[in-house]
Design a protein that fits this description.
The structure is a single chain. The chain has a five-stranded antiparallel sheet with strand order 2-6-5-4-7, covered by helices on one side. It has a four-stranded antiparallel sheet with strand order 3-1-8-9, with helices on one face. It is an alpha+beta fold. The protein has one domain: Cyclic phosphodiesterase (Cyclic Phosphodiesterase, Chain: A, Alpha-Beta Complex), CATH 3.90.1140.
Length: about 180
Amino acid sequence: MSNLKRVFIAIPISQQLQSEVLNWVEQSSLKNESAIRWLSGKNLHITLVPPWETDRVDEIVEKLLTIKHQSFSEHCTSISFGPNEKDPRLVWATGNASHFIQDLRLKIYKALNRQINSRSFNLHMTLGRFRPEAFSHFEIKTLHEKINWELNVSSFVLMQSHLYKTGAEYKALQEFNV
């Protein structure tokens, strides 16, 4: 039996912001789109390092414990369909990534001896997922809603991802203060 775990690094979302997000979903004209699988509050996060499989969680934890960084704030400023408006599969909140989050992300990649993705970092929080083919049946085809959700970043988390037919569930393995 394999001990591989599917893990990723994320910024956790505060209870207050979880409430704001869930309130937005409740008020949204997309709320009744049955094809959208909305994330629960505990599954909301900002991904810093995308998922990979490993059997060395203890080694990863040791490496991540060496990272020092200051607390900072980020802002999600818009809700839209993504990641590609012509062929979307997500409802997500996006914002401009500050140099603080870029620096933290770089420190994490270096500590893990991982090659950083050459694409620019896109600050986003997935709110809901759907199959691309379902989009053609949506009543709403465009979504560009302005928001001002503040993320106070004082930690990051090593998360484990469990994939199910109903969607992914996430479990925090360890939190690291910045």
